[in-house]
């Protein structure tokens, strides 16, 4: 590829229906070197990028009449494998944020053209920077761009740039994302089924309105019941849960693999004595700690006990709901109820009564589910065009309830009993949010997706490794609803496990 092809004059601006291209910049990047660790490269493993060369193209555009300004950044490598890999965002960010450099570098290191979008909201971690156009008025255009509109635009723009730069379209195109990126991937499969051939949508925040609203519940329970448990108490309850439920799946390995057999109650440990590191002494577990842990695990509920949304699986890190002596225990700054429901940056969600909380929860779903929720179980169009979808979710995820992804998969299966033919979902025991935790991260997810798309080889399992008390353990993750069952032999090797329901 000639370096002179990397210039605004040489690259044809994309044609995007309903949009005006404001600018196109292009610059050649040489000697790009970056070590990309797996925990910053979701769906992939470690990749060492050395002396890569690529054309960095940024297209800025607007939807006339909407007063938005969106940028799509695309890297076009000199040594191209003929494929496009789009990357997603995280938290409140659509993409083009701090982790995008790792995501895109990893893709470049494997020969992919790669792309990301800021959805017109920039790289601020909090929506405080863009949520309100004025007090009482939500910027619905920005939210719609984050929710879905920018995603199809990104695909159209990136494919157009690939064709212009290389003289041909990508042979295959893929999406890779986790968390917000997972929600985006599911949204693409549901609303823009022609955008990508394969989608890796891991730990997806697909029911965004319920997820964001449910996060308040354990914190408000502290206020409603006037309790303030220590973080060390909640850590103790997590450890006790694992100790109680780990053996019930048939193998003592420090992980809970089958929550259907886990019936531990945090209230059974009230008054238990344990050593609290932050106090440097032994204390008794308080009733308040059990109450907050139970709230985190049971999920948001009405005063009558009706479940509003799922909670975290026992075994996840819930210490953020507790306090640490000498540190400010004030709940983190609100970014959902105050900005999008109360529409008032000064609104204090900690003053909500239980009745008001339930009202806010329902308002959030009513007002924003069409914009932000990627929860439509009908994947017919994606299936018919031959698309493939893979997701994994950590069962010790402290940010997004695993059961929400289970619910979505089950809903898709009810809509189409053959959903397993094009959508496979893998639960990862001990894995935290996208990466981390005590369990293994499935670093071959994207490779499995590519084999499925290009060779028709559906993934029957995904290999993982994690470090336990006795060294490195190899395991397999199984496509839901199957689970990895220990069949005997050396518990540190994959051959000792089989997938079964």
UniProtKB/TrEMBL annotation:
<dbReference type="GO" id="GO:0046872">
    <property type="term" value="F:metal ion binding"/>
</dbReference>
<dbReference type="GO" id="GO:0030600">
    <property type="term" value="F:feruloyl esterase activity"/>
</dbReference>
<keyword id="KW-0106">Calcium</keyword>
<keyword id="KW-0479">Metal-binding</keyword>
<dbReference type="InterPro" id="IPR011118">
    <property type="entry name" value="Tannase/feruloyl_esterase"/>
</dbReference>
<comment type="similarity">
    <text>Belongs to the tannase family.</text>
</comment>
<keyword id="KW-0378">Hydrolase</keyword>
<dbReference type="Pfam" id="PF07519">
    <property type="entry name" value="Tannase"/>
</dbReference>
<dbReference type="InterPro" id="IPR029058">
    <property type="entry name" value="AB_hydrolase_fold"/>
</dbReference>
<protein>
    <recommendedName>
        <fullName>Carboxylic ester hydrolase</fullName>
        <ecNumber>3.1.1.-</ecNumber>
    </recommendedName>
</protein>
<keyword id="KW-1015">Disulfide bond</keyword>
<keyword id="KW-0719">Serine esterase</keyword>
<keyword id="KW-0732">Signal</keyword>
